[in-house]
Design brief:
single chain; 165 residues; alpha/beta; Glutaredoxin; six-stranded mixed beta sheet; 6 helices; 6 strands; globular
Length: 165
C-alpha cells in the first residue's frame, strides 16, 4: 500500500508541476517568418522588441530595467527575443526572464541553426551584436538602439506614443 501511495503522491506532484508550467507563458521558437508575424501581430500598437542573450553581460543588467518598464507601461507591447547563438539555453533563458519580471511578456528564443538568416530577416545590416532594442511606433516606424538602451530614452519614446493616441 505504501508503494501505491508514494506513486500517487509522485503523480500528484508531477501533475502540479505540469500545471504550473502550463500556467506560465512558454518561450516561443523564433524561426523563419516569425519577425513578420510579430510585426503583424502588434500592428497599430507601440512595441518594444528587445534582443538579448543569456551570456551577454549588459543584457543581464538591462533585463530587470525592461521588466520594470513593461510593468509601468502596459500601453506598450514588450517582446523579448533571446538571440544567443545556437545551442540556446531555454531553461536559463526562462529563468532570467522570470527574475527580470518579464514572464508575462511575449518571449521568443532563436530556434534555427542558421542565426544569420534570422538576423537578416529582422535587419539585413544587423551583425548580431546584443543587446539591441527596436522601438516600433503605432505607424510602424522603427527606431533601433544598438547596445544598452537608456531608460530615459524609452520613457520619452513611450510618452510620444501616448501623445499620438
Amino acid at each position: 500500500m505504501r508503494v501505491r501511495f508514494a506513486g500517487l503522491a509522485g503523480l500528484v506532484a508531477l501533475t502540479a508541476s505540469v500545471a504550473a508550467l502550463a500556467a506560465s507563458p512558454a518561450l516561443k521558437p523564433f524561426e523563419r517568418g516569425t519577425w513578420q508575424s510579430v510585426l503583424k501581430g502588434h500592428a497599430g500598437r507601440p512595441v518594444l522588441v528587445h534582443f538579448w542573450g543569456v551570456t551577454c553581460g549588459p543584457c543581464k543588467v538591462e533585463l530587470p530595467l525592461l521588466g520594470q518598464f513593461a510593468k509601468d507601461h502596459p500601453e506598450v507591447d514588450v517582446v523579448t527575443v533571446s538571440a544567443d547563438l545556437v545551442p540556446n539555453l531555454p531553461g536559463a533563458t526562462q529563468s532570467m526572464l522570470d527574475k527580470a519580471g518579464l514572464s508575462s511578456t511575449e518571449n521568443f528564443i532563436f530556434n534555427d541553426g542558421f542565426v544569420e538568416r534570422l538576423r537578416f530577416e529582422i535587419d539585413p545590416a544587423w551583425q548580431g551584436d546584443i543587446p539591441r532594442t527596436m522601438l516600433i511606433s503605432r505607424e510602424g516606424t522603427v527606431t533601433t538602439i544598438e547596445g544598452s538602451a537608456e531608460m530615459g530614452d524609452l520613457e520619452k519614446w513611450s510618452a510620444q506614443q501616448l501623445a499620438k493616441h
